[in-house]
Amino acid sequence: MTYAELTLTGDLLRPARLTVPELLRRPQHTADVSFECATSGMQHHRFTGPLLYDVLADAGPGFDPARRKDRLRFLIAVTGTDGHHALLSWAEIDPDFADEPVLLAVTVDGTPLDAVGPQLVLPQDRCGGRHISGITAIRVDGSYGFGGPAPATPGPASVAVP
């Protein structure tokens, strides 16, 4: 059998390539989730897999240990095989902040996801828009900068309507 792979990249000390069998070797959590799907209505599923936080923490995010809040500037971008993307903040999954139980599901309703890849599951979301199937990549990014306010764009403040 060929296993789907996902890559962990970005501001990590230990970037990695992971398969579903490798994710199955981690502590598993179960979530019974109901969410509204735009194309097929209300969905009810049972997902099992490791916590996203645990997987990323093991990869060693590049936080500045001298600054407790440094991790709040990190974003997590998730990409699926179908081209869907989702963006999370580190604070959403960090136990010291929101501590949301976001899963990298390796089974859905008891069906293994070995060949298609893990699924991002956010039990707290009412809409399934951030549930990403067949994850191919997760990027942790804390390298963007925070400058001052954006400069004003030169030009007229309003547009005259003829």
What layout of secondary structure does this protein have?
Blueprint lengths: L4 E6 L5 E4 H5 L4 E9 L3 E9 L2 H7 L16 E6 L4 E5 H4 L9 E3 L1 E2 L2 E2 L6 E3 L13 E7 L21
Parallel strand pairs: 1-11
Antiparallel strand pairs: 1-2, 3-4, 4-8, 5-6, 5-11, 7-10, 8-9
What does this structure look like?
Strands 2-1-11-5-6 form a five-stranded mixed beta sheet. It has a four-stranded antiparallel beta sheet with strand order 3-4-8-9. The model is unreliable at about 150-155 and about 155-160 (pLDDT under 50). A hairpin with a 4-residue loop joins strand 5 and strand 6 (about 85-90). The chain is mostly beta strands. The N and C termini lie far apart (about 65 Å). The chain has helices at about 20-25, 50-60, 90-95; strands at about 5-10, 15-20, 30-35, 40-50, 75-80, 85-90, 105, 105-110, 110, 120, 135-140.
> How many β strands by DSSP?
11
Task: Give me the Rg, rounded.
Answer: 19 Å
CA-to-CA gap between the ends? 66 Å
Mean pLDDT: 88
- The coarse silhouette is globular
Query: Which percent range fits the helix content?
Result: under 10%
**Lateral arrangement of strands in the main beta sheet:** 2-1-11-5-6
For the sheet with most strands, the description reads: 5 strands, mixed
Q: Helical stretch count?
A: 3
pLDDT < 50 stretches: 148-153, 155-162
- Share of β-strand residues: 25-35%
Label the structural class: mainly beta
Order of helices and strands: EEHEEHEEHEEEEE
Search tags:
single chain, 162 residues, mainly beta, globular, disordered C terminus
